[in-house]
Amino acid sequence: MPLVSGAEVVLTAAKAGRGVGAFNVIQLEHATALIAGAEQVGAPVILQISENAVKYHGALKPIGVATLAAAAAATVPVVVHLDHAMDRDLVTEAVSLGFTSVMYDASKLEYDDNVASTTEVTAFCHDHGVFVEAEIGEVGGKDGVHAPGARTRPDEALAFAEATGVDALAVAVGSSHAMTERTASLDFDLIAELHTAVPVPLVLHGSSGVADPDLTRAVEAGMTKVNIATHLNNVFTAKVREVLAGNPTLVDTRKYLGPARDEVAAEVARLLTVLRATPSE
To answer: Going by C-beta distance under 8 Å and a sequence separation of 6 or more, which residues neighbour residue 229?
Structure first.
């Protein structure tokens, strides 16, 4: 199945009231695990490469091209998405490589500058058929608006979406980035209000800290794209530790990265069901 556009996956899910799982790629094992998990349940999936992951690799192209190649070989719809990009040159490079979705993050700028910069990036991406996600303010865990007490106002979200022309909007409803425990308390009434007020799909960042029942409830309240990274890193790392602890002389990386990849695939399949991401859900 060829790589698909972010619009095709996210807008289709939003119209059907389904969630879409958006999971982060750090190494190739992540990309293949995420695709395998999606294939197990027949659901579309979004593979996200963050600006921090790009810094880890030293460049976007190696991990980006590898992820695009894995996506092109998948049997389910796969979107390759640039996540939390603050560097506009990185957005340009991602589009040139063939990414079909980007999250441009100008949230650290003053509101008017955020609108102006996001509008320019959105126009560029739309000229190339690329889906654009953005946010008004910073996300929790990144010194900002998705800290547990922060909330996105529906009127401000509507104004931002209309001013910038973005295709999806990340909103603050109680989640926070990089949580290692699933204890976040979401504001479901606010999610419903935002869903009614904002004409584009909503995105939940920091979803690793959200328990399964609340992920389902968030989708039911109107959330569409759900970003999960740290939770899957926990799953991956726990399996690596388990294998190495049981085999202290093991040196073949395939012997512990492979089981970790399989563990992540199984968890992705489970999470996609929780998110009601399969067409049959």
So the answer is: 23, 24, 48, 50, 208
Q: Give the model's confidence band at 25: pLDDT under 50 very low, under 70 low, under 90 confident, else very high.
A: very high
Report yes or no on whether pTM surpasses 0.85.
yes
Catalytic residue among 83, 105, 167, 214: 83
Closest alpha carbon to 91 in 174, 166, 4, 199: 166
Give the end-to-end CA distance of the chain in Å, rounded to a whole number.
21
Which has the closest alpha carbon to 103: 235, 205, 255, 216? 205
Q: Is 252 a catalytic residue?
A: no
Instruction: State how far the Cα of 151 lies from the Cα of 135, in Å rounded to an integer.
Output: 12
- Which tens digit of pLDDT belongs to each residue from 174-184? 755 545 455 56
Residue 148: its pLDDT value, please? 52
One-letter identity of residue 233: N
Percent of the chain whose pLDDT exceeds 90: 80
Residues in a beta bridge with 204 = 226
Beta strand extents in 58-204 (DSSP E only): 78-85, 101-104, 131-135, 168-170, 202-204
Q: Around 165, how many Cα atoms within 13 Å sit in the side-chain half-sphere?
A: 12
What residue has token string 């889906």? 131
Mean pLDDT of 165-182: 74
d(CA 150, CA 147) in angstroms, rounded, equals 5
Residue 102 pairs in a beta bridge with 82, 132
